[in-house]
Design brief:
The chain is of the alpha/beta class. The protein has helices spanning about 5-20, 60-70, 80-85, 105-110, 180-200, 215-220, 235-240, 250-255, 270-275, 280-300, 315-325, 330-340, 345-360, 360-370, 370-380, 385-400, 405-429, and strands at about 25-35, 40, 50-55, 75, 95-100, 120-125, 130-140, 145-155, 160, 170-180, 205-210. Helix 16 (about 385-400) packs antiparallel against helix 17 (about 405-429).
Length: about 425
Amino acid sequence: MKKITRGELLAILFSVVLFLVGCGPLPVSVGEHAVTPDVDMKETVLLSDVMVSAPLDESKANDVAASIEDYGHNVDIVNGEDCLAAFLADRSEHLPLPISRFLEPDYRSRAAHFDIDYIIILGQAQTDRREAEIATTVINYSDSSRVKTAQIHAEGKMRAFWPILPYIALFVFYSEPDTQSGVADALGSVVSQIIHRDEKGTRYRILFLESDNLVEIARNVPRFSADSGNQKQTSRELNEENQPAAIYDPVELYKVMIGRGDAADENDPLTASMPYNPLAHAIAIPTVIMLSPMLWLIDKTLVEKPPGSMASSRWDFLIYSEEAINRQDWEAAYRLLEDGLVSTDDAIKYQSHQVLNRNPELMNGAKESFSEESLKETLFKHGDAAFKLEEQRLEIYKTVASQPAYSDAEQNFARVFYGKINDDKNITE
């Protein structure tokens, strides 16, 4: 057997290192990193929409209770199975049931001996290790009007620790996001803040329940706050910001090929290491040169462009109304809110009335919108169509205005529109 010389051994080792470098750095996991979740305090969801599916799993209930206790509150867990059995003792109803049913007098009487201080309902989305989402509704059992809902969402990405000399390094180190622990801690903090405001004491008996639809409901009820400096963007703005760059742009195409495009999977260690792979660049450059003109031609000649803009969100009118409120343009804010006040969608109707209740100045704007000057302006802009428009608005105004205010608006409407009709008749005669 031939003995390998030192020179040959060095040559083999150099070849192996060169091969590994050419393939790019190898990813090596170094554990997990914490992720700070986003907490969105919602306006109270409609309790009649929140369906209770089961008592919360005992281990989950213990975890939530422990998280609450970390913030200085003592928690006694009400036995969920026994309590629900008492609620459903007459066997006439079965789960799932809306939580509002459990707050009615006949149900309360069946569970009086459980001494419930709070009902906490949890809903959890089906997520992976890099994303976690929980929605919770906290109900003060002695005063069910005191209800708060929070949506907690954590999403993290892989973090890579790049070598000092990336093109000659053998390894790239990365950590995975830990979303679950962040969500659990935020949940304990949120619940503690809610019950702390009630100032009922330091020990609480809590019934933990589970809901299969709470997360979806919370997603569909955005937060609207007139004094918030961080207003939600309109769907149109979001769509414009998230439009992908034209793929025939050589720079953008090059980014895509080396794993730096907008749609790149940054959570994949191999993809994340691609920009540090010399072979990826060597392949990408000639490919971009050949493909870019071809893709440009296809896009310009064969791809049909959709007409018009994308459909707006059903919540856009509330967002615009809040923006008008921030400007203290009360009349515009009320006009934007009107359709929501009589919407057939209960969630939209509820939120619209919440905005109106939080901002009593809106009624001044509503009154101003029915002044003679405002009605005449509508008549000037819309002609004969103004009568129907303002008649419909008047019907909406009737549902929220006081009787004197509505009477004034009705009289102004009659003077402007019926007066015009009479004038037209006189001219004809």
